[in-house]
């Protein structure tokens, strides 16, 4: 692969990720207006860092499995959800 191909791939990736963050921000602001509440106004200027905060929250969230004698029943739905029916 040439250098221009890598530059094109990285530029395309940057554009797509920027669009995803921007559209998430627009969606949150519109939903805040429609639901008559404040939107993402606590993270950065005008809520511009809200997608970053969402990503940090997603990657630091723990997977909670309830402690019970039937631990197989609480952990089996996850693999079963990938089973093609």
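^ Assign residues to that structure.
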């Amino acid at each position: 692969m040439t250098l221009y191909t890598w530059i094109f791939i990285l530029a395309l990736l940057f554009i797509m990720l920027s669009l995803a963050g921007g559209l998430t921000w627009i969606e949150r602001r519109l939903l805040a207006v429609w639901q008559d509440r404040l939107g993402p106004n606590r993270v950065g200027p005008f809520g511009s860092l809200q997608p970053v905060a969402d990503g940090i929250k997603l990657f630091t969230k723990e997977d909670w499995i309830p402690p019970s004698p039937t631990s197989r029943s609480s952990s089996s739905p996850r693999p079963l959800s990938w089973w093609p029916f």
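Residues 3-34 form the longest helix (32 residues).
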